Amino acid sequence: MWKLIRMEWKKNHMKKYMINQAIIIAVLGLLLFAMCYWVPIDTETEMQGSVPEIENMAMQIDLLTNLSFLISTSAMLSSFIIKAYKNKTQNLMFSYPISRKKIIISQMMAVWIFSAAALFFGKLLIYLLLVSASGVKAGFPLGYDMTSVSFYIQVTIKTVLTVTLGLIPLYIGKMMKSSKAAIISSFLLFSVMEGTIGDLTLRGNTILPILLFGVSLICGFLTVHNVEKEDVM
Question: What is the pLDDT of residues 124-151, one digit of tens each?
């Protein structure tokens, strides 16, 4: 399996994805740093009145990084799998004396491992960036403590959840035979999780992430379930 995963990384030229993720992390880091330390807010009242949705920077880091990486993970999965079907390169992979399920799983794992590592370390870099300027007066409370073990546990859990959610858009895109459908559905999925309509919001709901994680695993299973019998697109 590990050899197949490495082959997928080599075949899909992972260097370009590494550059893209580095750019995303850098842009988000600068944006969040500016939001935290450069926003011209003098009083707590002004802060609450101008941007009431920002409770602390930890929430904003989660919001922006999770959105960016859910979409990028879905885009990678569609490129690795859906486009491979459409470009007929999957035909070559399926001609190898290897189980089709094993090939599809290796493609999914290649994206999952890369995205999870990029998101985890990207978040830590942004957290460190904001903490490094602790001597400067912040416009918003940071809302996290990097010396706490629970902090790293939470980052790990949220990273696993976000990247795994990419299996839902993958399944939708594969069923619709469309990479665009996968990317659009990833954005809609995040909107459902984090969106707010009036007083109705699912943000902070503890049951929804667990349900969606289960749905993601089911979608991952369905993606590979009948792959041995189905025709290539």
Answer: 999 999 888 766 666 677 888 888 999 9
Q: CA 59 to CA 56: how far, in whole Å?
A: 6
pTM of the model: 0.84
User: What is the C-alpha to C-alpha distance for residues 75 and 43, in angstroms, rounded to an integer?
Assistant: 42
In whole angstroms, give the CA distance from residue 143 to residue 123.
14
Q: E strand or H helix at 5, and its extent? A: helix 2-11
128 to 21, 125, 141, 159, 203: CA distances (angstroms): 17, 5, 14, 17, 25
Q: Residue 200: beta bridge partners?
A: 197
**Dist CA 60 CA 144 (whole Å):** 12
- Burial class of residue 102, CB neighbours in 10 A (0-12, 13-18, 19+): middle
